[in-house]
Each structure stands twice: as structure tokens, then as C-alpha cells.
Specification:
The chain is an alpha/beta fold and 305 residues long. The chain has helices at 38-48, 61-73, 110-119, 143-153, 164-170, 182-188, 196-208, 247-262, 265-280, 288-294, and strands at 2-6, 10-16, 30-36, 53-60, 77-78, 81-83, 88-95, 97-101, 128-132, 157-161, 213-217, 223-227, 230-234, 300-303. It contains 10 helices and 14 strands.
Amino acid sequence: MIYTVTLNPSIDFIVHVDHLAIGALNKMTQDFKLPGGKGINVSRILKRIDVDSTALGFVGGFTGTFISDWLTKEAIDHQFTSVTDDTRINIKLKSGEETEINGLGPAISESEIADLKAKFSQLKPDDIVILSGSKPAGLAADFYEVLIELVQNAGADFVIDTTGAELFAALPAHPLLIKPNNHELAELYQTSFSSIEDILPYGQKMLQDGAKNVIVSLGGDGALLFSGEKIYRTNVLKRPLKNSVGAGDSMIAGFIGRYAETRDVVDAFKWGVACGSATAFSDDLAQADFIHELLPEVEVKEIFI
């Protein structure tokens, strides 16, 4: 089983306004409400490529019910921990440029924390746990490390998709996959890159520091995969860019969903790129038919240095 963990999910309230006037009455031209949160995005894409997952995390109030009901409608298993406070709402205001206003998230009690941790007792050695995104403000700084220890105690694998100190602290535990972009990778090692060649030693260093596989997304320049002694790069698929939200989560879903079935990192990389690109070229998370349309266009080549 693949488990996704979203500690601070949200309703993403996407609002379109033609000409935003600060301090005046504005009327929406369109609005959408979608379940948000990186792990939830991963579960939704996994479902679209016919891979089962179970979504874990904290949800509360009418906003949490919205998320649970949405996943139920999409036939995605979820075992959320109910919390007293409401799940947050994030506003994505689109008026020319996009402006984001993210909620803080709920306060989490000790009993609610204990309930989530208890759910990790069902893990088995063949399972994969995907830990994604931000934490509610009240959780301890090392909370991901606590969850990683529970995963390791069960003999399962984990993926972590976060940044900075939390990502770096997870490396000695040997995550199955990490996915920094080139800017996050440079920040992690306090350097800068002016070419693809500059990135290569640092991707390899992340393997040396403990990661089993590393994908470095390069925006409009494709992506790199570091695995064992080998480095791979994909081509860039050509479509109009519509949406960057969820593209990285979709890449992780494609990679892990395929890897769980085949244990072939190159094939998994192709699926990751197809899923990530399909979301980037869609208004919301990618649909299955579009992912399958893009898959034959993905080319993976080994880089020799």
C-alpha cells in the first residue's frame, strides 16, 4: 500500500477577477473550490493512474468534511484524523498575476497527534509512505522525523517532499525519493547554479548524504534523476503552461505509483515526468487520458560525466 500524509491540508479557493481594484468592491468572474494539500494531490493522481493509496492527515470542521467527501467521491481511501479546529482555506486570486493568501492551519492537540501516530501501526515492510508539504504551526519542528522513525520501525519506505532543514534532516534515514527543484537544491547547499553541469555534483551529493533516488526539476529545462551511479535527463514536453500548482506532487505520484509496480527507476521517471507535465498543462490536476497521451513523448537519456 502507498500512504500519503498531509499534515496541513486546505480547501483551495480559486478566484478569478478581471481587474482587481484594491479598496473597492470586486466581483468574481469564476471561482472553484478544490481539495488542497500536497499529499492529497498525490493520492488524487495515483487514483487516475489506477494505483490505490490511503490518505492520512489532519482534517477538521466543515472544511475538513469538504475534503473527506471529495476524496470519497473519487473513491480514494482516507483515514484522516479528525481535529477540533477547521481545516484552513487558501485563496488563489487570479487577476493578471496570481496572488496567494494561505491560511495558518488548525491547532493540533496531543490526543490528535497520538491518533495520527497510531495509524502508522498498520504499516508493513512493502509499504511506501509519502510525507508532503507544510505543518500546522503548533507541531514540533522535528515532527517529520518522528513520523519517519515510525515508518522505519515498520520496515517501510518513505518519500519526503519538503524543503530546507526538514529535508536535510531526513536524508540520513535514506528516503526512497526526494524531489527538490534546482533553486531548492542550491539553497540547501548554500550555492548557486549557472548551468545543468553545475547541478550534477550536488544531485550526487544528495545520494551520498542518504537519499536513494533524487529528482531535480528544472522548470522549462526538464528534469534530472540521480539513482545509484547513474544520472538521467528528460526532454521538455511542449504545451502551453497553465498551472504550476500540483505539478511536483503529480511527478511524485507518477514516479512512486509506477515504481511500486515495476521497481524500474527509469520507467518510473518517465511516468513522473508525464504526470507532472500533464498537470502543468491542465487547469487542475491532470486527467488519466492526458497523462497517457504525453507518456510516449517522454524521452529519458543517461548523462555521462
